[in-house]
Amino acid sequence: MLPACVGLVPFGLVCGVGAAAAGATIWGALGMSAIIFSGAAQIIAAQLLAVGAPIAVIVLTCFVAGLRFLMYSAAIAPYLRPLPPRWQQALAFLLTDQAFAAAIRRFDAGADPRAGGLHFLGAGFALWFFWQITNIVGYFTGNLVPASWSMEFAVPLCFVALIAPHFRNAPTIGAGVMAGVAVVVLDGLPMRLNLIAAGIVGIVTGTVLELAKDRWTRR
Amino acid sequence: MDATLKIWLVILVVGALNYFSRLSFIAFFARRTVPPLLARALRYVPVAMLTALIVPMLLPGPPLEVPFAPSPKMLAALVAGIVAWFTHSTLKTLVAGMAALWLLQALAARIG
Fold first, then answer.
1. What's the predicted TM-score (pTM) here?
2. Are residues A101 and A39 in the same domain?
3. Which of A82, A122, B65, B103 could form a disulfide linkage to A113, CB 3.0–4.6 angstroms apart?
4. Cβ–Cβ gap B53/A157 under 8 Å
5. Does the interface predicted TM-score (ipTM) exceed 0.90?
């Protein structure tokens, strides 16, 4: 639990700084961290708000980035099935990359549903609470750091830390490379639509490469 | 539109959509399994979306000029990526990336 929290500190700070840069009040910043409760979506929303993108584009881009929650939801659903619906609804809200990893480990270790669910609830709430604090601190301290320190570089670094370990097979590398090329090539699109277009190019590339790899190895 | 109103609309709609994605297979499609093709595609969402988000942050601009000389940020991100690949640690990745950037910026300033 503790290592997960330590890793969240810079990410949360950066989200708070981003909300401030997007012109949010402290309540807006807190609304982003408490209700959206997803670092990637918060960064995307803050960036697009700052460049004046329309609401529809912001919502669509955040939605595609949040599709990974479908994957987590499906993976954790069988473990939560014995729990009452209210528990399921509460736990779903706390489903994040980190809480998912912690909960899956506990359930796989053979915990009974209630104990596993309780662990998930505790870990999820602790992460949620900790996330609010890091965001608020980021919101208020962001402009105290001199610009020459290039602290904004912590944003891409947080994402690099998330994805670089996955670059271990051809479809994933292909998905990343094609998304990176597409976002540059499509830079001329208005309202930063290149972001979501490049995301879709990457997702399709990875899926097609994986299907091709399967077909190749089956022969 | 009023800026505060716009931010709150984004918060509520994105928050609701995120919650529905999180709740999807736990509640709405509880009796179903994920279609295999969708399961495959979803696995590439983080890598594709986050790479698309990272790359523009490393380039000088806007406007983008192609071809571009490798910037200190690109090289520092590469160093960070290698550290992340081997260590799986956010903290070590951040320390390595920031240190590399400061070093490269100092070098670039000296060379002029």
1. 0.84
2. yes
3. A82
4. no
5. no
